[in-house]
Amino acid sequence: MLARATWFLTIANHRKKKNAISSKRWMAAGEGRHTWGLDLRLCGAGAMKRFLTLAALLLFLSEQAWAQGFFQYGAPYPGQYYRIAPYPYFTPPPRVNRRASAQPANIKVPQPEKATIDEQYAKGSIVIVNHERKLYFVEDAGQAIRYPVAIGSPVDQWEGVQTITAKRENPTWYPPEDIQWESNVPPVVPPGPQNPLGPRALYLGDTLYRIHGTNRPGSIGGAVSHGCFRMHNTHIVELYEKVQVGANVYVVP
Questions:
Q1: Is domain 112-252 given the CATH code 2.40.30.10 in the classification?
Q2: Which residues are catalytic?
Q3: Residue 251 contacts residue 135 (beta carbons within 8 Å)
Q4: 234-247 mean pLDDT
Q5: In the chain, where are the structural domains located?
Q6: Which tens digits make up the pLDDT trace of 32-72?
Q7: What is the 3-state secondary structure (H, E, C) of 145-176?
């Protein structure tokens, strides 16, 4: 038992001396230890920078082959990462869908025609027949002068009876906001070649509808307006002189 205790004490003293020697060596070297670590880190950073530069150069030289394998849809291109995607919730209609500005056209204007009409319509009244695209001015019972007109588009056509409440020479046009955007026109269009009302306008009741001239003579005979009735300019000037404020206007299918 005594021998075993002596052996343990010998081993413990040996380890204590060994640790003391190691501590002294460590303290002796501690003065330069920090400097060595810094130098090692600096060397490591420089090596890493050179490695990354070399790797980037290799990737640049093999961009096509590398990109095809790395990117699912092919190699990136300049500006790809800075391109702003279009707004996903609203896409304005293409400009081509808007109405073009007025263009002069050489259209042969037909002569007004004498025609018969139902005698129920009083002298001085106007009858517009949508499916014929014709306007009748009643000169006498059963007798009328017939003019070609442009009527409203299929969604803008209407039927009924209105009264002429005003007559305007060289009218100024005040288009609604939706027409301003669709036709690319300002809020006020003065008389002139760009004014779609032409030289004369007859106002129907308290509506926005009119019988007027046009700066698009090629549209006469079509269903193209927003509910107004277009006439050739020479025809509206003639009708303007004949019709009176208060006259009835009948719009029939």
A1: no
A2: 212, 228
A3: no
A4: 96
A5: 112-252
A6: 444 444 454 545 666 777 777 777 766 665 555 544 555 45
A7: EEEECEEECCCCCCCEEEEEEEEEECCCECCC
25/29 Cα distance (integer angstroms): 6
Q: Can you give the pTM of this predicted structure?
A: 0.58
* pLDDT tens digit sequence for 4-42: 445 545 555 555 555 555 555 545 545 444 444 445 454
Q: What is the DSSP string of 182-207?
A: HHT--S-B-SSTT-TTTTEEEEETTS
Q: What pLDDT sits at residue 184?
A: 80
